[in-house]
TrEMBL record:
Domain MATH, chain residue ranges per copy: 23-155
GO biological process terms held by the UniProt record: protein ubiquitination
Stated name of the protein: MATH domain-containing protein
Family matches, as SUPFAM superfamilies: TRAF domain-like
CDD domains, A to Z: MATH
Organism lineage string: Eukaryota, Viridiplantae, Streptophyta, Embryophyta, Tracheophyta
Species the sequence originates in: Oryza punctata
One Pfam family per UniProt: MATH_2
InterPro entries with a match to the protein in the record: BPM1-6 (IPR045005), MATH/TRAF_dom (IPR002083), TRAF-like (IPR008974)
């Protein structure tokens, strides 16, 4: 007798892991940008803001060499937050459709341990004042009317995975065809056994011997 003949096949089971992310962004405007060159080595912090389910702030480091650095810092009580961060310099007049080369949209993946553990991520950007520059036409970022620059910080944070028990039927994996050659999953597993009635042995014993005691 084969081993297969003595086995019982149980119905297949299934489960689902749903992965989602929360996104958000913050806009920071720096007015009087040319004056910031006098504050080489200093740092400025934006106000706290909420995005992607957490609280953050942007740290700005100006430089006398026509560059500026932006860093994102986690604040609040959150811990071990893995995020994708993207800083983008917006053109003057905030025309997002004219944003420049792909390097301006580089994403940074970083794990923020906690607010007490000071760590951050960001990028540096060089500016030039001459409109004749071809390789680095970054003068378009500076609004001459109010001497300002505008940066957008996009943040994406992974949510906690949602895990739940499921069934092959709900997942749309069951084929109901009658083709014997079909290799897909079919609902041909044995029906679950119906529960057997519970017998009260003590009551049955009493009834059995009651006829002899009458």
């Amino acid at each position: 007798m084969s081993i297969k003949a003595n086995t019982i096949t149980s119905p297949p089971s299934a489960s689902t892991i749903a992965l989602t992310a929360t996104t958000g962004y913050h806009l920071l405007k720096i007015k009087g940008y040319t004056h910031s060159r006098l504050l080489n080595g200093e740092r400025f912090m934006s106000s706290k803001f909420s995005a992607a389910g957490h609280t953050w702030r942007i740290i700005v480091y100006p430089s006398e060499c026509d560059s500026v650095s932006f860093f994102l810092q986690l604040v609040g009580r959150s811990k071990d937050v893995t995020a994708e961060v993207q800083f983008s310099m917006l053109h003057r007049r905030c025309n997002a459709d004219e944003m420049l080369n792909p390097d301006n949209h580089q994403e940074i993946r970083h794990k923020f341990r906690s607010a007490s553990c000071i760590n951050s991520c960001g990028f540096s950007r060089w500016f030039v004042d001459s409109e004749e520059t071809v390789d680095l036409p970054l003068y378009k970022y500076i609004d001459k009317d109010d001497d300002s620059i505008l940066v957008r910080c996009d943040i994406k944070v992974m949510n906690k995975p949602a895990i739940r028990a499921d069934s092959p039927e709900k997942l749309g994996l069951i084929c109901h065809c009658k083709d014997d050659t079909c290799k897909r999953l079919h609902d041909t597993w044995p029906e679950p056994m119906s529960p057997q009635p519970v017998v009260n042995n003590k009551l049955a014993f009493t009834r059995l011997f009651s006829c002899f005691l009458a």
